[in-house]
Write a structure and sequence with these properties.
seven-stranded mixed beta sheet; 6 helices; 190 residues; Aminopeptidase
């Protein structure tokens, strides 16, 4: 768009998906997003623990971090009310996505982006990402960044980001960390 308006600001979910080449249906009638503070404290922790139930070594390693994150979100509802959402399917929470806009106008970093285990593999993560990108795009960033693990457990996440148009920009080696490498992706919105 030559007007300087970020590409996602006025696009529908279907047009966003067409732009990034994804094939997901954006918002079926039984899928919705709701503010995080419309659920009780503990919900983010519970969903993270469930989403990682297929990798108990990771769940054990991150358990305290997830509890702290959940507490932080619910201790600061005004700050984070517009920095994430919970995805519901038929009214039940099935995932959530958060982001950090502190690097605007340069970029927004996606934080947690998870779908509970029994709903994984059905395209909900891609639809959730699409909904999040629409909200993030309204903030006017030049790009969106995200990191994820470089182990087999994270392969579906890496495929999802790549199919949504994110480009791999780096692989970072980590010492003394349960995940030895993380992959950083970026989606340009210019």
């Amino acid at each position: 768009m030559s007007s300087g308006v970020p590409p996602f600001k006025y696009l529908t979910c279907a047009r966003i998906l067409a732009r990034v080449g994804a094939s997901y249906i954006c918002a079926p009638s039984d899928m919705d997003t709701r503010p995080i503070d419309s659920f009780p404290p503990g919900i983010l922790y519970e969903m993270l623990a469930d989403a990682y139930s297929g990798a108990p070594e990771l769940a054990g390693y991150y358990d305290n971090e997830w509890r702290d994150f959940d507490g932080f979100v619910f201790d600061n509802p005004v700050l984070l009310k517009s920095h994430g959402f919970i995805t519901t399917e038929k009214g039940e929470p099935v995932g959530f996505m958060t982001w950090d806009p502190r690097r605007l106008p340069g970029y927004v970093r996606i934080g947690h982006n998870c779908i509970i285990a029994k709903r994984q593999g059905r395209g909900l993560g891609g639809r959730q990402l699409s909904n999040g990108l629409k909200m993030i795009g309204a903030l006017g960033p030049k790009a969106v960044r995200v990191t994820t693990g470089n182990t087999p457990f994270f392969l579906p996440a890496r495929k999802m980001y790549e199919s949504a148009g994110f480009a791999r920009v780096s692989v970072l080696g980590l010492e003394d960390y349960i995940v030895s490498e993380i992959v950083e992706y970026e989606l340009s919105l210019e």
